[in-house]
């Protein structure tokens, strides 16, 4: 990473900002609002051109035209227009809230990182030794952490800052706010705004999460259960990591407080962000296997015992839609897990010679970690070490590079496909249901 100039780092920062899921979801809200507004305009035109039949009646010898059907229709149209207008304004408010959320986290996060580095000499010395500017590093790291890219301008990721517990503490919330806890924090933000402003649009958003058509907006119960599940996963990983790595080489040179903060930072980043304060190659296999499972899970995985209740809410029309015949393409789709197994097999084939000659670096576990990390868009890597070579190569030099840097071009190409597959996994999340294993 340190070969990039300051200008190139700024360009990468912009790409990370524009490509993050939160920012792209804001664009989706604006597009849905525009389409909804056009649809409403067409409906209003149709309604304004409709004229119902008149009904003549006699009163004192005079005929009077009465239009009760038209009056009822006008009342219904007026009520419908109010509902549609409220929904349109609510979508607009939701887009503003999400964009404000995006700006507040980045401005606050980058400011705190810059302030910490300016005040702490050890962190400032790391940047000066690598020729990095504080402002560029702060914005780059914040954007990468929030959008879960896993990039850090230093070659060794966050390993250079493993003793700067304050910096790790600043970055941990940004990792959660941009991914696993985004729906919960977004709903909390809307609830606070509703209490402060008393605007009916915020109330409508909270009460009609499905009608808003925003996948990151969850119900109150779902948001709470998601937060509990994320906390449970972090606690489970934290306990295992501390119990297996507390006295290992990964924690050398750190005091108790630094070990606690380093372990917490590592397990939080194992879900999606992929920034690391330890060398993954020296971590125990049990912890690595748990990391593989955690990286595979989608961002909004939660313990949700509300399936039955939600099914009862579905109308008869929706139930009929669910019973429609599945297309041939959907039947041929494999499950995400099956697809990952195929990718691992293909990479093992392309790297078969290195698996034989260099088994300590090239083994199935390291390849699996790299593949699942790419699928989950995490960025974890065990790296490559010349010291682990069974047949030492005099030309080999240790360098801070990802494990995939030592793969063949075909292996790298397959991993690129895995990254795209992982980024678009929501379109294949129900794949493999045509297969019955029992």
TrEMBL record:
InterPro entries xref list: Cat_transpt (IPR003445), TrkH_K-transport (IPR051143)
| Protein's cellular compartments | Membrane
Q: Establish whether keyword Transmembrane is in the entry.
A: yes
Q: Which sequence ranges are marked TM in the entry?
A: 6-31, 94-119, 167-193, 214-241, 282-306, 327-349, 407-424
A GO MF label: sodium ion transmembrane transporter activity
Q: Which UniProt keywords apply?
A: Ion transport, Membrane, Transmembrane, Transmembrane helix, Transport
Q: Which residues form the signal peptide?
A: none
Topology within the bilayer = Multi-pass membrane protein
Question: Gene Ontology cellular component?
Answer: plasma membrane
Q: Which domain of life is it from?
A: Eukaryota
Concerning its family, UniProt says: Belongs to the TrkH potassium transport family. HKT (TC 2.A.38.3) subfamily.
Q: What is this protein called?
A: Sodium transporter HKT1
Which organism is this entry from?
A: Dovyalis caffra
């Amino acid at each position: 990473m340190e070969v990039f100039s300051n200008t190139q780092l700024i360009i990468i920062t912009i790409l990370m900002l524009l490509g993050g899921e939160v920012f792209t979801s804001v664009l989706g809200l604006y597009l849905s609002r525009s389409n909804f507004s056009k649809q409403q305009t067409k409906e209003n035109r149709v309604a304004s051109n409709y004229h119902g039949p008149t009904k003549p009646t006699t009163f004192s010898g005079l005929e009077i035209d009465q239009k009760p059907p038209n009056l009822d229709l006008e009342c219904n149209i007026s009520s419908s227009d109010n509902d549609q207008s409220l929904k349109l304004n609510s979508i607009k408010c939701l887009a503003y809230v999400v964009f404000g959320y995006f700006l507040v986290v980045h401005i606050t996060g980058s400011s705190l990182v810059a302030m910490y580095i300016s005040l702490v000499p050890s962190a400032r010395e790391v940047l000066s030794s690598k020729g990095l500017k504080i402002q560029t590093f702060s914005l780059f790291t914040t954007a990468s952490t929030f959008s879960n890219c896993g990039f850090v301008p230093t070659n060794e990721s966050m390993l250079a800052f493993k003793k700067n517990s304050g910096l790790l503490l600043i970055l941990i919330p940004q990792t959660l706010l941009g991914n696993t806890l985004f729906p919960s924090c977004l709903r909390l933000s809307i609830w606070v705004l509703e209490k402060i402003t008393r605007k009916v649009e915020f109330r409508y958003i909270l009460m009609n999460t499905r009608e808003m058509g925003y996948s990151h907006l969850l119900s109150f119960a779902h948001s709470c259960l998601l937060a509990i599940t994320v906390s449970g996963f972090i606690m489970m990983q934290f306990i295992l990591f501390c119990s297996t790595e507390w006295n290992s080489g990964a924690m050398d040179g750190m005091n108790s407080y630094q070990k606690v903060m380093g372990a917490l930072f590592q397990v939080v980043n194992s879900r999606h962000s992929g920034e690391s304060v330890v060398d993954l190659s020296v971590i125990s296999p049990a912890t690595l296997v748990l990391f593989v499972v955690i990286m595979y899970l989608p961002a909004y995985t939660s313990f949700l015992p509300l399936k039955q209740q939600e099914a009862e809410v579905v109308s008869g029309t929706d139930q009929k839609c669910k019973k429609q015949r599945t297309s041939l393409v959907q039947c041929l789709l494999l499950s995400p897990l099956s697809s990952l197994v195929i990718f691992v097999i293909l990479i093992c084939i392309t790297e078969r010679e290195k698996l034989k000659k260099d088994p300590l670096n090239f083994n199935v576990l390291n390849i699996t970690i790299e593949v699942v990390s790419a699928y989950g868009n995490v960025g974890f890597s065990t790296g490559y070490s010349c010291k682990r070579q069974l047949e030492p190569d005099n030309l080999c030099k240790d360098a801070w590079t990802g494990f995939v840097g030592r793969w063949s071009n075909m292996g790298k190409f397959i991993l690129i496909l895995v990254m795209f597959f992982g980024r678009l996994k929501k379109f294949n999340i129900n794949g493999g249901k045509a297969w019955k294993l029992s």
